[in-house]
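Sanity check

After download, print the first record. It should look like this:
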Amino acid sequence: MTPLRLGTRGSKLALAQSGLVAAAFTAATGRPVELVEITTAGDRSTAPVAQLGVGVFVSALRDALVERRIDVAVHSYKDLPTAVPAALHIAAIPLREDPRDALVARDGRTLTDLPDGALVGTGAVRRIAQLNALRLPLRVTPIRGNVDTRIRRVLGPEADLDAVVLARAGIARLGRADEITETLDPMLMLPAPAQGALAVECRHDDHDLVEELGALDDGPTRAAVTAERALLATLEAGCSAPVAAYAELAEGDDGDEIYLRGAVISPDGERAIRLSRTGTPAAAAEIGKALAAELLDRGADTLFGSKE
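Expected structure tokens:
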């Protein structure tokens, strides 16, 4: 049986995520999987992600798919541009890891336990904005690097930060969840749209593979991510903008319903617009679009800052 060629970035986290998808695919289909490492523009640059633009961790993988050098690609869903190329298809969104943000701090401290003037590093404008909005006596600084590099800056022998904030999902997938000192409540730190979710992408015309990959799809995760991403797309803000969205599925009076929270925060944390909306999973995209429209009506587009 010909192995499935699965394209992945070469970072430790990307390989761990792709390994999970590969194992699930082989378990479901019996077909072996070969991992193909591909270097993206985001991997080669040390510039802040917000300056690199949308899709810097994605374009090279999508090119490889279109050129048929690989059969499938695995992405961190939150890295994807909101527009999917016509030739490609998100065939599966597996069960989501915990989407919340997490704190790794010296001496086991929580966010409110950090001393005055503590230096906290994080990579996303969204996190910087929400940390600033908390009005804690902290200094927040933007950082780049993989999960290991960021944690080393807090817990390593040459540590230069008091704490870092990053996605809990990545820490957990690397088996380092015991180093988390606090998982941040979404009321304090609303996650990025699709945080903790993976996107398994293939060519649109590869009908047999689309069907096979469907075995990996998790319906509730897809509904939640669809709502969050529809909000982001309607705002036209890009994945590096200070936009947060988190959808949860719960049992309502008439069956399952989605509870979607969305927020846009100015980078300095001075202004924030936070709204929510509910609806059925079948209407996930419409819920996201409607909530985005409400945010825009309240002036959300004035809080984005630069979209570069």
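If your output differs, re-run the checksum step. Summary of this record's structure: The radius of gyration is 19 Å.
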